[in-house]
Amino acid sequence: MNTGFSDELIRRLRAAQRVVVLTGAGISAESGVPTFRAPDGLWSKFKPEELANMEAFLRNPALVWQWYQHRRDILETVKPNPGHETLAEMERHYPDFIIYTQNVDGLHQRAGSRRVAELHGNISRCRCTTCLQIIQEIDRGQDGIPMCPCGGMARPDVVWFGEMLPEGMMEQGYRDVAAADVFMVIGTSGVVYPAASLATLASRSEAYCIEINTEPSALSDAMDAVLIGPSGEVLPALWREVAPQLHF
Ligand code: BV8
Ligand code: ZN
Which helix (H) or strand (E) covers residue 19, if one does? Predict the structure, then answer.
């Protein structure tokens, strides 16, 4: 019995060997992590250029740290939702499955996903602005700004606007997308590049492209299937339909 998922969609997911997923803030929304561009989203109070870039940080490190500390505090209280958990389950079924996430919340890994490429870093890690080391133990310098043992100021280990993504990660993403049987893009407005280019490349490759979002995004027109609904509900429902016939 088909619950609104097309036969083609189900057939593609049952036949796939290689699956590539791109996720954005929307997949963590049902965990209670605010998204960026929703009316009550993270950017509604601040503009990205005010906070998520090096100039803003150097101009006012305390304000930027305050904003990141606020987000880290939220992450202490949340847990993965059924959307994250379904992707972790899918990874266990498919021979080749990888998630490229724009999220910095670490929830995919907490849900059990092992192959996760963090395109924009991870908010729970800190890096030194002087010696560039990842800092495990941070101590609080003047006005609460975390400092590196070398004396340099610590920053969140995330990719800010105008900064390069982790070396080689997009190139690997393009190779994975070019070889994929199915590409899924979940919970992203598709406005941030180069991350969103994984979806635009997928739409021009052999991969069958599936979007899950609560509303159409900048990527929807290029997708083969657009499933409108919260990923915490759509992903488990889709997997219940697909999984029984999977025999690897
Ligand atoms: C770079 C980390 C170059 C920090 C982030 C003009 C045109 C095109 C590009 C540019 C341009 N001007 C500048 C650029 C480049 C810029 C960019 O793309 N800007 C955009 C905004 C125009 N990109 C960069 O600067 C990148 N670097 O290009 O470097 C370079 C070249 C050479 C040398 C040096 C440098 C770096 C970009 C990374 C920025 N860092 N975050 C932090 O988190 O604090 S971006 C930030 O936005 C997050 O990472 C976030 O993940 C990302 C994307 O947002 P989304 O995840 O999509 O979240 P959003 O709220 O927008 O959407 C949520 C979606 O979920 C919605 O569609 C909603 O409907 C849906 N949803 C909600 N609930 C649910 C749901 N879906 C399903 N279920 C639900 N329950
Ligand atoms: Zn240092």
Answer: strand 18-23
